[in-house]
Every structure is written in C-alpha cells, then in structure tokens.
Fold these 4 entries.
Entry 1:
Amino acid sequence: LQEHVYTISEVCSKFGIEHAVICPGSRSAPLVFAFTQNKKINCYSITDERSAAFVALGMAQKSKNPVVLICTSGTAAVNFYPAIAEAFYQHIPLIILTADRPPELLNQQDGQMIFQDALYGNHVLAAYNLPCFTQNNNDFDLSENITAEAISICNSAKQKGPVHINIPFVEPLYPDTLEYEVNLKSGIKLKEFTEEVLPKDEDLDLVKEVWKSCAKKIILIGQLQPDDNLKNGISELCKREDVVVFSDITSNQNDSSNCKLFDFIISHCDKEFLNSNQPDLLISIGGPVLSKALENWFKKAKIKHHFRVQSENTLVDTYGNVSKFIKSDPKKFISELSKKFTTYTSQKPFITVWQNANLLAKNAISSFLETENWSELVAMQKVLDKLPVPGNLHLANSSGIRYASLLGINQSGINCYANRGTSGIDGCTSTAVGSAFVSKQITTLISGDLAFFYDSNAFWNNLVRENLRVVIFNNKGGGIFSLIEGPTKFSETRDFFIAPHNRNAKNIANDYNLEYYICTNFSELNTCLKGFFNESKRPKLLELNFSIDENSIVFKEFRKLKIS
Ligand SMILES: Cc1ncc(C[n+]2csc(CCOP(=O)(O)OP(=O)(O)O)c2C)c(N)n1
C-alpha cells in the first residue's frame, strides 16, 4: 500500500476539495485507491485526458473550488496540457496529480515514461516532484505539507491557477486491501495565501484626486468570474459619478455596464466620435477583452491616466499605456473607491454621450436583424434572446463569441464563460460539460463546427447531464477565417484556413444519447427555440446549417452599418 497517497487525498478533502477526475491507467493505481476510497470526494472516470482536463476546468470554473485531476505516466500527462495552459491564464484552480515511474528508469526504454518533472513549465503556479517512497521510507509529513501548500497556492486569493504534483511509484502498485486509516498531523492549516489583497489608502486617494481632475472616465472590465459584490460596487459608482463602464461579454458584469454595445459602437462610429470621447482616465480590471476595435483604439488613443488594478504579480499592460499599477483585488478596489464619493452627481455628460451612442447602436442592430436572410449573426441573436434566465452560457472560440460581443446580451442573469485564457478550440465542449455538471441551471454551449468536432470526446463520460444544451453553428469549416481579412485572400490557400468538411452532428448526438434537432431556416429555428430550453430528461443538441459564403456576405453588410 502506497500509504502516503492516502494522506494526499485526505488533505484534499480536509481543505474542501469535492471532485476528482480520474483517467485510467496502472501506474496511477495508488492514487485511484486513495481518492475513490475517500468518502468526501466524488470521483469521475474520463478516458481522454485532454477532454478530462477541460471537464475538470469547467467544474472548477463554475464551482470556484479546486478540482483534482489524476492520470497515469507518459503521454497521458501531456494530454492535460492544453487545459492546464487555459487554467493558468484564466486563473482557475486545479490540482494535477500525475503518476510517474522511479526516476532511475528514465531513458532506459521503460514503457510509458517521459520527462514529467516540471512538465507544464511556466503554465503552473507551482510544480512538485515527490520522492519515490517505498513502504519503509514513507514520509507522511512531506506528502501532507506539499499537498496543503499546493492547495493553498492553487486557491490563493491573489492568483488562482493550476498546481502540479508529480508522484513516482515503485511496484507493487496494488495493495492486498483497500482499508487504510489516515491520521493527519494535527493542526495542519492552509498556508497564509487566503488573504485578499486590499487597496492601499494612498492609492485610493491618488485615484480620487485624478478622478476629480478628469471629465471623461471609463472603467474597462475584462473576463471575470460572476461576482455580485463587484456588480454592486460598479452599479453604485455609476449612480454616484459620471463614469462609463465597458464590460467584456465574458466579464459577467453585463448587468452593471451602462454601455453594453461598446464593441459595436467603437467599430461602427466615425473617427471624430472616438477622438472626442476618448477617456482621460481609464481604469482596467479583469482578464482579456475580446473587442479588437477597442484594442486598436486604446493602443493609439492618448489616454492621460490608465490605472490597472489587479492582485496578480504578472503586470498586464495590453494597450501599452498603463501609468500606474494598483495592487488590489478589483472588487475591493471598486467598492472602496465608490465609498470615496458620498454625493450623487446629477450631471453626467460623458455617460449621456455613450448612452446615446448605445441607443443608436441598438436601433441600427435591430433594423439590420429584421433581414430575412438566413445567417449566423441573426440566428445568434435569436438564440441569445431565448436563453433561459438564470442560466449559464458557454461560447466556444468560433465566430459566435465575436457575434455575441457585437450584439450584446440583452437579458440579465446569464453567467457567461469562454476559454479566452488561450482561446483554444480544443476543449470548449468539455469545459461546458464540466460546468453543467456542477450547476443546476440550464447550461448552453454555442459552438462552431470545428470546435465542436474537435472536442466530441467531451460526451464520452458519465458526466453529461440533462441540463446541457449545445447549439452548433455548422458552416462546414472555420467560418471565422472568412470574416477577417487575410486568410481567404488567395484561393489556392483558402482551404488551409477554412479546413472545409462535410460532417454533421447527428451521429454524434445518437451515439451519446442527446436529443437532436436541426434547423436550416428561421421558421424552423423559431419553432425549435420554443421548447429547446425546456427541462428534459436528456441533454439536447441543436444543429444550425449555414453557408460560409452567405454568412460572410451578411457579416460584411453588417460591418457597413454606421452610427453617428
Ligand atoms: C487548438 C486550436 N487550434 C487552432 C486554433 C485556430 N482557430 C481559431 S478559430 C478556428 C476555427 C473555428 O471554426 P469553427 O469552430 O467551425 O467556428 P466558425 O469559425 O465557423 O465560427 C481555428 C482553427 C485555435 N484557436 N485553437
């Protein structure tokens, strides 16, 4: 019995970890015994490690709690990598336990053995390599301490993310009995990582002073987990002060933004509007922002003050104009800042300018969407408008997320997720499966066909729940490459970008017991959407068929809209 592994599992449950995703293998047998025998941890078996890691990511993202991932040695561990990179950039806590063989066997033609020490390089917050314990030299304290430290780091209030523990095992791997009583060292505590980074008074005073001297203020919110405290802080600040809030579609601050269509406005207004309405003060918080138009504008604009507020150590300066980094948890910063303004400003000229633009944008979009032409853009609006509330929305890294960013989400109460840490198309469905598994609400994934077929193993497990809805925009290739300039410039190389194919999702739906629907025009879509989000005993998949060429014509027309 590899007893120290039971210590690892016990420390995980002691510190609140509830879920472990286990991929099959033999070298990892001790980990399988230790986790499956722990009554406080729910274990799930998933065979494809790439998919398993994204499922774990989706579970941790939704539950805001670390999830354990276990695999055997060799390439199994490498297949975790894409999701680990995504978790690193999206600050999602994962504990990765990879089984290994004794180090002296490396490069000696022993099967299923590769360089696993520090396998995930800079994409983990910490990496440990446990010694190869035998029955007589088990070091329980070390296993306990390393696990506690790993959990503290992965779930730190300052910066969450993945942590790797590589664990070499000697044979025998299979015990005579599964019974084992674990006695943890008394008093083990999570290390002092849990304290939130609070804003310093001097920083708040400085921001207030600059704030008072600036007429045009914008708060920009990038990708973030849903957070009511932040929402309340932002809403309160906007009630009191003349400040415009641009919130990315994945910021989960849609409801507190006072200019939801900023992406559309910036890409459809004239230069003069942007010149006269650039901010003197920009405060940016959160992860990546999708809008390319905003990025281009902010990179060129002459913004006097850009305060970047973040608790993480790696300083982010996307537009190359940060004038001051403020180390703080963004929600604490916003709530403390709003307390600095005790009166309510009645005149809000800057908000008014952007709200007027928002109204013009809304009208322009609405009239455009009245078109009869069957296209992804219009279908997207119809699907978004029918999403059940409250509910979860996952947007794959296909054109859909760009459409959604331009159109905005009209409804309140939708939590919006996307793998924007590294923007891969390789695990969007698995992430949604994991997320739906830990949520009671209807969880809808909107995906393009390449992203969907790439990750169809997402359904190859027992976690797919009846609250999952998948909507595939099937244009038989990577349609996004026909929407941007460049990839389709030369007909000879077009196919290497678009990667055309002729597949549909019907057989996958049948294989995995999903209810299957297909629509090829608005009348079918309207009828289907009437019941698609209703509760059901099985998950549902809706496939919408489009043509890349027709879509790109509609999108080009849409891009010509002007607001002024
Ligand atoms: C793992 C990975 N490989 C390649 C890419 C590059 N890429 C970005 S979008 C895309 C095409 C997506 O096609 P699809 O999901 O069908 O959506 P559509 O563009 O048609 O909306 C590709 C290949 C990526 N983001 N991630």
Entry 2:
Amino acid sequence: MPELPEVETIVNQLNHLLPGRRIASTWIGWERIVDRPAVGEFCQRLTGQVFASASRRGKFLLFALCSSDTLIVHLRMTGSLQVHPAACAPDKHTHAVMMMDNGQALHYRDPRKFGRLYLVDEPAEVVGRLGPEPLANDFDVATLACELGGRRARVKSLLLDQRVVAGLGNIYADEALFRAGIHPLRLGSSLTPGELARLRDGICSVLKQAVEAGGSTLRDYRSVGGQVGGFQERLEVFRQNGKPCPVCGAQLERIRVGGRSTHFCPHCQPPQGIRVQDKD
Ligand SMILES: [Zn+2]
C-alpha cells in the first residue's frame, strides 16, 4: 500500500504533467470509486476545470483546481495514477479517466477498488483530522512527544494512526522503530525523551531517503510512468524476518501488533518497559 514516500513521488511527477491542463471530459467506470459528491455532479463539476498544482497531505493526493475546488485522491491498497495518450483505452481495473486538453489522459487504476476520489471546496472535510506531517520543518521532538506521550497504546499502533502522525504505514513504521531501537510493543507513554528524539530522527530519515529513492515497490506500487521504486532494496527489517539483523546479526523476528505484521530485531529493539500483562 502506498505510504508517504510513494504518494510524494507521484505528486512530484504529476506536478510536471498536470498544471495548466484543462479537463476536457471525465469518465467514471465504477461509481463507488467516487466518495463525494454524487457521480453526476462529480463529473459535471470537474469537467472544464484547470489543474493548478498537486500536493500531499498524509497519504492523500490533493489537486488544487483553478476554481475553489480540490480533487482529492486516496490510493488505499492498490490505487495508482497514470498519464496515457488519450487514445489508450481504459483496462478493466481503470475506474476513472480525465481526458485533458493536450491529447493525454489521467487514469485512476485500482484492482482492489479500495481507493476513493473526492471533489470538495473545503479539503479539511476530508483531511482535516490528520496528525502532523513528519517531513514538515516543525515536526520536532516536542510535536512527537505531544502525540505519543501519555498514550497507553503500543507505539507501533500509534505510528499507524493517521491522527497521530500522517503518512506512515506498516513499512516505514517498522523501519523507523528499528532505526530508533524501540520495541514495537512499547507503550507510547513509556518512551523516554531520548527515545522520542531517536524515533523522530528515525521517522524523518527513513521517509526522506525513501522519497529520494522513489518509494518502495513490494508488489503493486508503480509511479506515474509505471516505474517501480528503489527503496525496497534498502529495507532493513520489513519482511526480513528470519534474516540476520544488518546491525547486530541477530535473527529478525515477526510478530502481530494490533492485527498488523510487525518486523523487528529482538536485540537492537529490547523489550524493556513492556510489562508482562501488556504482552500480546
Ligand atoms: Zn539487531
């Protein structure tokens, strides 16, 4: 599933392709892909609009249009956006096509159909409850301490909660906790100031490096041009269970935390601070 680095990569690519392009027509092949407004209004309002710029909030893509409207896309598990020549017919997994005025078309493709499109005049009604942006300049230790401190939930689950930190998913939460040397079952409230500082640095460093590498492709993710990412080669713990830890050589393990597969090093991420009755 695309996380912050993958969505950021798509946004950067679309910012070279979309600004200034007018939407000549809008086709929806599967109506439930449109969350709001109703499909008829969605198509009518979108057609004729001009793309201004693309941006990202958490895992959402936001396309500012030259009216006051914003087109918002959430790719969820298997969604992708691609630009094709207008003559390119949508395949069976393509659920929306926006024909543009330059002979190209923006395709929304999603085999599992969990993604959603929104057309709103107030983006906050879709993205308003998201937590802080981890790549923003003001994402510091105090911000992270404010989100995690006092929370009696496991740090792995907290990192996946989009209201706590926006944009992290299963891959980068595991990688950030490994970099910080924090066991995924630790409670948010148990983290020391030093651990919070290491976690903040781990989140920022892994996300920045993954953006620079064009994201990670584990199965479905492709960028706008159909390319795979480059960061999957550099994942240190995610789906590496059974292999030696790249730091200490201990065998990496996998457990479930809040129903999600979680990968860690039992030596570099010691379980101190976990009370016996807290263990799953
Ligand atoms: Zn280790």
Entry 3:
Amino acid sequence: MKPAEAENKARLHVEVSGIVQGVGFRPFVYRLAKKFNLGGWVLNDSRGVVIEVEGDDRDLGSFVEELRASAPPLARIVQVKTSRAEPIGETSFRIVESVSREERTVLISPDVATCDDCLREMFDPDDRRFHYPFINCTNCGPRYTIIRDIPYDRPNTTMSKFKMCPLCEAEYHDPADRRFHAQPNACWDCGPRLILCDADGNEISTDAPIARVTEMLKEGLTVAIKGLGGFHLAVDATNDEAVRRLRARKKREQKPLAVMSKDIPTIRRYAFVNEVEERLLKSFQRPIVLLRKRQPNPIANSVAPRSRWFGVMLPYTPVHHLIMRGDFIALVMTSGNISEEPICFENEEAMERLRGIADAFLLNDRDIFMRTDDSVTRVQQSGQIILRRARGYVPVPVFLKDDGPAILATGPELKNTICLLRGKEAFLSQHIGDIKNFETLSYLEKTAEHLKRILQIEPEAIAHDMHPDYLSTRWAQEQKGLPLFAVQHHHAHIASCMAEHQLEEKVIGVAFDGTGYGTDGRIWGGEFLVCDLSGFERAGHFKYTPMPGGDAAVENPIRMAVAHLYQIWGKDTRDLELKALETISEAQLRVLFRMLEGRINCPLTSSVGRLFDSVSALLGICDYASYEGQPAIELEAFADEDCAEAYEWRIEEKDNLVVDSSVIIHQVVEDIQEGVPREMISARFHNAIAEVTAEVCRKIANKTGLRKVVLSGGVFQNMLISNKLQQLLTRSGLEVFQHSEVPPNDGGVSLGQAVVARNLLKKRQEGK
Ligand SMILES: [Zn+2]
Ligand SMILES: [Zn+2]
C-alpha cells in the first residue's frame, strides 16, 4: 500500500433499518464491499443490519450511495444512519454471526413467491434440485409463516429440524452464492418432503406424489394441498360436477371460489387482464386479483355463479408450479376450511377437519408456524385496492406520520384483523376472520402474541370496538392492567384511511358499510363524519330504517326490503304486486307487518349496505345472502355501466343532514312496476347514491370549509360507487382519499382503532 493511500483511509459505522433481514441484504452488502475494495463486516441484529466498512474515503461514499439505491428487490430501507469510526486497518470483508439484542425493532419479510431463478433450476433436468418441491433462495420462499422468533435465522424458524447437507451448507456459507444465508435452504437430500395421504389419512406409498395428485384432479377429485400459509382445497375448475361437490362438502353455497392458472395467456382464455392487473398478478406477493369474466368461458359456472368477476392467482410455491404443469386451464384453490372457521395449517388438524371434504391430502413435513390466507386485490380507477390483506403483505407495516406510544387494537367482529403500533409503524395482522366462535378468537389471540413477540411490542393501551358484545371487545377487556379505548366503528374506518394517507387535520369522512355500533346504540352504516384522529361529529347519515329481526334481515334481504316499503306504503305494501314479495308467504308478511308496526325486535339502522341489500331483493337478484355483502355485490354486477341516469333524491336538513332513502325506493318500485330492465334500475340506483353522497359532502364542505373527503367502509369495494363518487367530488373541487394498501372493509378497522386510541392516550398523557 502506498503511503498516500493509507492516509486517505476512513471507517464508517452504518446502521440500516427496514425490511433488511431474510431478503439477501448481507450478501448484497458483501458484494458491494468487495466491489469498492472495502474491509470490515456486516451483521444482522435485532434492529436491522449493522455494517462497518473501511477504505478509501470516496469509495465509502459510493458504497453508501449504492447501498440505498440498489438494495435487493424485497428489501425496504426505512433509514440509513452513518457515523465515522476510527480506522483499524481492516482490509478483508466478512459476515458476522447474528447477535440477539434486547431491542427488536427489525422488520420481517412477508412470504415471497418462487423466483424465476429458482424456477429455471427446478425445471432443469441437470440441476440437483430438478423438480424439488421446496426449492427457494435468498429472494424467495417462506418467511412470515415459518418464523417463530427473531432474529430471522434458521434456528428460529420451522426449518430448524432439517440439517443441511454439505452441498446446501456450502451454498449457505458462500457469500457469492444466491442461497447465501437463505434460511429455508434445502434440497432433495436434506430438506422437507411431500407426503401423500388418502381420504382417511393413510400414507399412499409413491415416488411420484405430484403425478398422482395431477391424475386425481383430472378425475374430478378434491385434493387438500398444503401451501405457504395453510391448506387449499383444489379441484379442476372446468369440471362443474366436481366444483359443486366441493361446495356441498365445504358448506359454501354461492361465494365465488378463487382459481389458479399457470400463466397470463391461460388466464386470458376466461378473463380480461389489463396491464396493471398483470403486474399485480405477477408481483412477488402473488395475490388473488379480481378479473372481469370473459363470456363465454371454459370455467364451470359453479365457480363464481352470478358474479362478473373471477378471483385469479398465479402459482406461488414450487408445488403449485409442478401441479400446474398438468395442463389445467384453472384449478379451484380455495381456503382449506369449513365456512366460518379459520384456514387449516397443521397436518393432523387438516386431516381431521377436512375429513369428508378432501379425497386426498398432499402434505409436507415443513411446519407452518403462522397461518395466513391468500390476499385478495382489485384494480379500480383510484388504483390498486387490497380487499383482504394477508400472505405477501403481512407483516409489512403501514408507515405513519407520527411517533407515539405502542398500541394494540383488537379490531371489529367481521373480517377481523388486529393492529399493533410501534413508533411510526403500524402492523396490521393477516386476515383473521369473523370473530364469532372460539376458533377464530383463539387465532386472534395467537396472532396478537406472535406479533408482540417478533416485533417486540409491549402495548401501553388497547383499542377495541364500541360494541359491548363483540368477542374482540370482551377479549380486550380481559387483558388486565392496560387502559382501554372504545372506538366507534365508522370513526375507525375513516381514521384507517387517514392513517394510510398520513392525514391528521379535520376531514369530511364518508363511511358506508353493513353494520357498526353507533353512539346512540343504533346500527350505523351510512355515515358522514367531520373528524380528526381524536374525535368526530356526525354531520349526516342515511335515514333510519327498522331491521325486522336484526341479523335475520341481513341473511334475508327481502325482510329489509319490506321494511323500506312499509315506511312508504304501510300495510298497502301487499298490494304493490311486486314479484319479489312472492318469495314470502302471506303469513310471514303479516308477522313482518306486526313487527314493524309495534317496533318489535326491529333495531334501527342507517346502513347503506342494507339499502343495497333491499334493492337487490326487490329486483329479485338476491333474496338470500349466503355470505356478507352478497346481495350488494350481485346488484353491482347487474348494473348497466353505460347508463348515466339517476333517481331523484332528497336530503332533509334537520340537526344534521339526513338522506331520505324512501324517495329512491319509491322510484325503484315504480320502475319495477313499469317493467324497466333490472340493469337500468340498478344503474339508476347506483348513480343516485353517488350523487346524493356527493351533494351531502358539498353541503358539509360549504358549512365547514373543509376540502378533504375520506372514503371508507365495505361499500367502497363497489367499483361503480367509488369511481363515480371520486369523479363527482373531484369535479366539485374537493380532494378525495381512498384506500390502497389497507382494506376499505372491516379488515382495515383495527388500524383506525389503533391510531385513534394513540391520539387519545397522548392527549391524556399531556393532561389535555
Ligand atoms: Zn428463488
Ligand atoms: Zn441439501
């Protein structure tokens, strides 16, 4: 070394935080250090990646620059902190073993779809992993679902029981190898293996389990297949009889079933795919994407009856890729569970709970530690929205504007997720489900414990729904010693969207959904709020309508429709000569009238979701809801999208603004009686809802001077409504905020609860 150069030596201490573990960050740093001729070391610790580099001053600068600019595809750098250190003459670079520290603020990678490099190897007959069903590398494979604890190293995952063979071990320790420190690294000799069992759980001895499964599927049998986050039930999607049998066994009547196809050209045979949708389908998250059906198409009608959409995904594990070579147009790949229960994830559990549903089980001996469903997304005018946030997205945080105390939010009753806040990060859990039974409640509990451990979060307060009877509320109340904050459901909806867009100022919030407990004890769901993150005022709502029989009116939307008719015509309702009314008997109608007249078991609701249900029932589109939201979803599917006409509407201005839905229902009935096509009626109804909503927003904006409108709630999964409203509000000079990373439905509510509770706690701590 020349003396002049030695004088220029400098040393940097670098700390990188974000998603930097389990994503090939250390090998990337290693190669970068080699490139710039730097000595030093890199290690994972519980806060992220720590690096020390020594060398030429200018090279150090370039090193840090490139560190930020060209990080591996799965990494997400939140912060790079550098400080000067004393040079110690280090000239070689090395990777140091992980150290466990008390503080665990590291971010953990979600599960990642099999990458192209691994696919090439898997289909290369000369490769030692030819057809190996658990191939993975630093850039792909299981992550969140196999981590037991952090730091993310093999002993802390469910891969700990597999001892790497010498070849795998060599790859794992070679910084130049693409499997360097790939924690789930494995091969035919040392890794997990497939196990095929018959319907009774007896192992079928075969050296070609994939080929056997392919045959079974071709024969129309149902196979339970263990995937990344749980089991799928697979069946040939072009075989109507097979799909019907699966539905009957699974007790899933009409809800659309997701399908998987091997590539985009195959998907195009039955659905339309635009560029944005294609990118989303191929993204490493590999979500289910809702795609518009092509008509006619080769998919069995029973896959998604009465829907305009198919939920489609591409293969994301090696096993999927191997099975899809069986030349299927599509396979149904639906969550391996019985309706209402969480997805199965353990071998024994699956064989017990799916007994009688699956004709065979394709298992493996790699355990899933944290069960996680497939994510569901859709592309609309405002961009991509996530309808169910789970595999591929969890546990990537939503980044908040402000710091504050750690909070746990237990979410609502339906489509539950929980949420943990830590500093500026909000961690929404994977989709947990409807917290109506012991199974889902214990899944919630396990998820909360797990996230608290791996993210090292000790909540200072707990947020929950205002509804006193929800199991998620009761569970919150059982957690002793922490302050509790009850957050109103629709306020939480708006707060979740505000958090996503880092809004803190007062906004106009429009929260439309099916059900949420209101501050007056009534069932809200058509709400106009003026709110910020700590409180809200109800500036307007849809008119209260009785719900005869409460929840029974959700399942049987015709009951809800009768309630609407009764508000206009009273007992003359029976003379309306509506075909929809023929679905209930004269006796039933009399009972309904008596209930409505005496207000017996008729809670009041302002729900827009229920209004959609009523119109759907009146049009004879859906008179029985086999899943939440079905009538509204089918009503949307019926609408003539080219029709711009709208029904007239009326807003009553009392203490606050009340949208009188009777005016709209009146015109719906007139149109039905005049024989107007259902497509037109549905369109006029949708347009009227969008218009009246925009008008209420304008009125509130004029009164308050607020210009920002935030839209949230399950109704905004309705593309017609959200697109139209976006246009109308924008045209009025208002700024519109819709969801993208966080679900508009109840899956996002826990985030809103958490940020509201944090704000209230902060105020309390500041003595305000
Ligand atoms: Zn890979
Ligand atoms: Zn091996």
Entry 4:
Amino acid sequence: VATRAFLPDWLYWGGALRPGLALEVDEAGLVVGATEGRAAADVERLAGRALLPGLVNAHSHAFQRLIRGRTEFAAGGERDDFWTWREAMFSAASALDPEGVFVASRQAFLEMALAGITCVGEFHYLHRDPDGRAYADPDELSVQVVRAAREVGIRIALLRVGYARSGFRTPENPRQRRFIDSSPDEVLRAADRLRTALRSDEAVSVGIAPHSVRAVPRSWLEEITRAWDGVVHMHAAEQPAEVEACVQEHGLRPIELAAEIGMLGSRFTAVHAIHLSDGEIAALGSAAANVCACPSTERNLGDGVVPADRLLAAGAHLALGTDSQASIDLLEDARQLELHLRLVRLRRAVLDPGRGEQTGLARVLFGTATEGGARSLGLSVGRLRPGAPADFFTVDLHHPSLVGAGGDAALGAIVFGGGPAAVRDVYVAGRSVVREGRHALEEQSGRAFSALARRIFG
Ligand SMILES: [Zn+2]
C-alpha cells in the first residue's frame, strides 16, 4: 500500500509531543503509524510546526453563527438572560430558507476548520419550513447541513433532534414551529432515513438528540431510548428554571429522570449538565456517561459553570462544544473548562491529575477537546494511532502566541495560549482542508454569509 508521511518538528503521539517522528498515512486516509527518520520522497516536511490530532467539537448549532455579536445588549432595557437570548435566536431561525441554512452552516464549519476542528457534532433542530410544514424532502435541512460540512471538508455527526413542545404547561411558541416533530417515531424514522442515505460517506454519521426534558415528554425519551442503538445527546440542566420545571412535571431532576428511564451509559451525552445534585453527578459517573461542556457559550448566556472536577472524579467523561458559536475556538473552551473552575473553587490547576507533571493538566484539557469529543460522538477519531482516521492539524511554533515554548512543554502553550491564528494545516481523512492557515472557500463563503446576514438583519 502506498503511504504518505508528514514530518513536523513535534508529533503528538501516545499522549505527548515527540520530536523526529513522521506520521504515516495510507491511501484510504488512515494512520499507518509513526516512524523515525523516514526520508522518502513522499514525506511532507512541516518545519517549525507541531502536529496534533484534530479537535472534535461535540456540540454545535451551526446557524447560530448568524447572531454572534447581535445579542450582546439588554434588548428589553432590563435583565437579559438565556431566555431573552433565545428569542433572538428564534428570530434568526425563522428567517432561514434551505439555502440560508446551508450558507450559515458552511460559514460556521469553515471557521471551525480554520480553528483546527476536524469533526463536528451538529445538534440539528431545524426541520420544517417557517410555517411548520414539512419540506417535500422531510430531511431537506439536515441534508443542507451535512452538505455544508462536507463542502468545507470536515467530518460531521448529525445529531437529529426530536422536539415535541415548548415546555411543560407552556403555551405553544409559533417561533418553534420549525422544530416540532409529531411523534418519537417520526424522529426515529428521520434518523434511520438519514443514516441510510448518508452511508456512502465515511465522514458522516448520524445520532439522535431528544432536545431536552423541557422540549420532549417522558414517553418520547422512553421510546427513543428503547429503539435507537446509536449515540444519544440531550441538553440537560443548563438553567435552574429547566430543573424546576422538570421537578414539577416528573418529581425528578433532569439527570434523575434520564437515569430512571435508562438513558445513562457510554452512548449518552448530557450537554451542559451544570445544575446537578450530588446524586446526579454520581449517576453520570457510575454510568460512564459523557458530559459536553460548552464554556464559551455557558459564560455568554450566564448559565453557570460545569462541575467538571466532580464529574471526572465520579467517573464521567468530558467533551467540549462551541454550541452557540459566540466564539469558535475549541482550545479556548478547553482552557475555560479549567479557568472557570478556578474562579469558583478559588484555587489553581483544579483538573490537574496531580502527578506533578508540567503538561499533565494540558493533556487532560486537550483530551477533552479530542478523545472526549470522539467518545461522545461514538467515533474512532480524536487520537492518532494505527488504523484511526488521519484527522489532524498543525500549529506554527514560531507564531507570536507560541514562540519560545519548546519541547513537550509546548502543549501547555498550545492549550493555554494557542488559538486559531496559530493553526496552519488541517487534514481530514488524509485530505488537505486548510493550507497555510487558509481555506479555499473562505472568500466565497464569507461573501454569501454577509449577503445572508444583510437580508435577515438589514
Ligand atoms: Zn446547545
């Protein structure tokens, strides 16, 4: 089998940055191994760069990129919070036709690629037209989102959302019409159809996502849990009001309800999981479930801080998401997971495994941004090892944000001080997506996105 090789100054291999190793990739885009001193003609020398496994963004709503910067004020002149922000998000969601969904998603995915993200879990809940009618192809908008990711070149796990209602004893909100499914069976059939239709592309997978305990009743959760054999994602315990409504309806908190139904396990991801009881933390941990924290969004919306230290200690697994796209920089999310806890716990290095190693904490955080996301999405990405997809990115170690950070310690600089500006090359399944910090569709996508934003916001 013909192979190619990439020789950076430092290769992240086996959990550490190592010098002098070339990453070998076969024609199918899979990692063959890491070899020393390879000098063949097909070696691509990546001088001055560190090569790392691609970042896995486990929770995204791509179209929300449209409202970035447009909601950073108290719209009612009074208190602004998650719920007022949500109304602005609904407005943008109402304005998108299928092409608009494609254009907005493509711009978000392109920005992700430029940030070293090679795989996205897209929590997709726009299904119907603005009047609440199904499109001729009921999967039209899902297909547009997948097309956007694949045109950019990143891997996508489409998490097909199920949405039944505005909430427990909550009047219908006409601006949620586009999200609504008529039954859990409709959700399951849509996910099955998509899984079959998209099977030919190995960079596309399909999961299912009951939106939240607010948006679906218990019977839906039970039916989906019984019938679906893939990954299941659900927003949970993001806001205190959501927890209170859940207790009112079920006499249980959101994760208590999920546990009682039998949802918790390694295929399950609770997105946010901020307002948790001790029992809920223990339940997530003993089930080895995943928690996807989205720190840049959670701080933007005033949600609170994910108790990542207690979740890890209990045995839960952590992943990260850019969620609302308030910013798209997964390394920033990785460090905020730790830095927010410092503000709460009034100490440093909260998530450090405690072995006294300089890169111990950086490794934990980088792991959540890569392997943690892969586990949450049920994919074999996130780690460079023989047989895994060759999804990776490089950073320029001479970039002003990183210069001077040598050796294995560079991981600390990359995680705590790096960002999209230092990203140079991005590869997905061995194919080049970003070269020298640029994406081929940057101008075209930016132009289309600007025109779309003008059409919606004037
Ligand atoms: Zn979300």
